[in-house]
């Protein structure tokens, strides 16, 4: 595999993707649960008291700045072993507000990448939101909307949670939509909380279906921390995701994370069990054979050794900011996930040798 950079795309020669060596443009799409990226200010409208200098976590300016440095350095390296640059689009969750996103993209590791921000404040009680970062030189957003997930407790009281963010635009002049998710947690137990994630999946399905009704050729990538694994009902029965391309029918979605999960790969660990809650799935037209447009190449979990706890009771787990109630100065309790989109260069399409 050889590389050559031609701004603004990386061109990659792939001999294993097709029968002969061809050149492709490549883009990286990533998602990262950044584990409570809060500023140090006390917001009276949300429950952020723990993440303040006088709160339980003793969340000081120094700790906040270290968190920003840590997260930005991780983001800069996702997929860079192939592309030699940071992701072109990055979905995020567990961010407090737009200001922390501004602080994040102005870190030295990301400052020169030229990221833009799409963000809405969600009604989540903890004040955590989802967002999309995008390279302005690569993606031009043309539409963005925040879809509310309405949940109610057994006593008919509102259960406030995160919105689902939908962003449409042009990726190198190619129409595409992104949906950023952070589905309800398993707090109170997996079974008891399951209806909330079913409702989140139903909302996601409605969004996807509505986009396809407007344009049958819509390319849609949905990503996020789903708090469910690829084999759970929310994915398999509601969203109709499949992990095998040959079995993909019209109206279904391809989830490359399913095969990884079955191999024991995870993005977070809890009580010595690995889960793959962080997922990216998409419409079948991103896995077709039209080399002139962007299509899926491969996906992965970004888990270098420095993102992993090296010792103690949480050895092997993601190296998080707090563990067991103590400040550890790590990164997040989740590993990022990513995928590559590729399309053939004009020279390849014209039959010229790379």
Features:
354 residues; alpha+beta; 8-stranded mixed beta sheet; 7 helices; 19 strands; disordered N terminus
How much is the average pLDDT? Answer: 91
Report the span from N to C terminus. 12 Å
Number of strands: 19
Unreliable stretches = 1-8
Major sheet: size, sense and barrel closure?
8 strands, mixed
**Taking Cα atoms only, what radius of gyration do you get, to the nearest Å?**
20 Å
- What order do the SSEs take from the amino end to the carboxyl end, as H and E? EEEHHEHEEEEEHEHEEHEEEEEEEH
Notes on the structure:
With 354 residues, the protein is α+β, with helices and mostly antiparallel strands. 20% of the residues lie in helices and 32% in strands. The chain has helices at 61-77, 80-83, 98-105, 190-214, 233-238, 257-262, 346-349; strands spanning 2-6, 9-14, 22-37, 89-95, 115-119, 129-135, 139-147, 164-171, 174-182, 220-225, 241-242, 253-254, 268-270, 273-275, 278-282, 295-301, 322-323, 326-327, 337-344. Strands 1, 2, 3, 4, 5, 6, 16 and 19 form an eight-stranded mixed β-sheet that branches. Strands 7-8-9-10-15 form a five-stranded mixed β-sheet, with helices on one face. It has a two-stranded parallel sheet with strand order 11-12.
